[in-house]
């Protein structure tokens, strides 16, 4: 899947997530979008941090290896509770169970971001702590019916209707959304890719 965000893109975003597109546009980076299709299976014994970094790197490399000439940016987000990784819920029952485990306590949100260009692939990770208020089963079921939790790690969207569950956040709001802008900016700056609409690339080419 390919879509255009600008007539003069300086980056390829390996994600069809509208949230990641919005965040990348927020910092003024013109880009194209190419979805990455990889196996996201969690490996036995894999640490959550290793998991999100591996997936972000694999997504970036998968799109880069299709012949994409632009530098490729990819990200992966997961929710972690007691060392257990929460991906996207498969159905209402799983979504309700996820919210039950998040209810009334804190959880960690990890988002890794990776950039692949001619020099190889680099990555960074953002870790945030989100605390939920108590969430009833009835609320969880009603929330599922809105459609919002279906493609969200942990079964909620902090920037959407699920924001009413969030009592506090320590860390990166954009990271919890799916693209940590500080870490993204650091990767882009190191690669000589301008943001704020500053006019393309500086330094070495991709």
CATH class: Alpha Beta
The CATH architecture term is: Alpha-Beta Complex
Distance between the termini: 22 Å
* Regions with little confidence, pLDDT below 50 for 5+ residues: 1-5, 202-206
Helix content: 25-40%
* Principal-axis shape: globular
Q: Structural class from helices and strands?
A: alpha+beta
Q: DSSP strand (E) fraction?
A: 25-35%
Look at the structure and give the mean pLDDT: 91
User: Biggest β-sheet: count, sense, barrel?
Assistant: 8 strands, mixed
Provide a count of the helices.
6
CATH topology descriptor:
Maf protein
The total domain count is 1
Note down, in words, how this protein is organized.
- The protein has 206 residues and is of the alpha+beta class.
- The protein has a single domain, classed as Alpha-Beta Complex (Maf protein).
- It has six helices and eight strands.
- Strands 1, 2, 3, 4, 5, 6, 7 and 8 form an eight-stranded mixed sheet that branches.
- It is globular, with a radius of gyration of 17 Å.
- The N terminus and C terminus are likely disordered.
């Amino acid at each position: 899947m390919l879509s255009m965000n600008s007539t003069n893109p300086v980056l390829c975003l390996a994600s069809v997530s509208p949230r990641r597109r919005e965040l990348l546009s927020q910092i003024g980076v013109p880009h194209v979008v190419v979805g990455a299709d990889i196996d996201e299976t969690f490996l036995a014994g894999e640490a959550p941090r290793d998991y999100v970094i591996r997936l972000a790197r694999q997504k970036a490399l998968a799109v880069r290896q299709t012949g994409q000439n632009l530098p490729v940016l990819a990200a992966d987000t997961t929710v972690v509770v007691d060392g257990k990784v929460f991906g996207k819920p498969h159905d209402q029952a799983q979504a309700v169970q996820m919210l039950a485990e998040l209810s009334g306590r804190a959880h960690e949100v990890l988002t890794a971001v990776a950039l692949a260009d001619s020099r190889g692939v680099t990555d960074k990770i953002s870790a945030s702590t989100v605390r939920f208020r108590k969430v009833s089963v009835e609320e969880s079921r009603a929330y599922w019916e809105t459609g919002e939790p279906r493609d969200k790690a942990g079964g909620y969207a902090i920037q959407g209707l699920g924001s009413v569950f969030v009592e506090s956040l320590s860390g990166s709001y954009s990271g919890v959304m799916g693209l940590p802008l500080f870490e993204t900016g650091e990767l882009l700056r190191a690669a000589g890719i301008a943001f704020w609409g500053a006019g393309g690339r500086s330094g070495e080419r991709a």
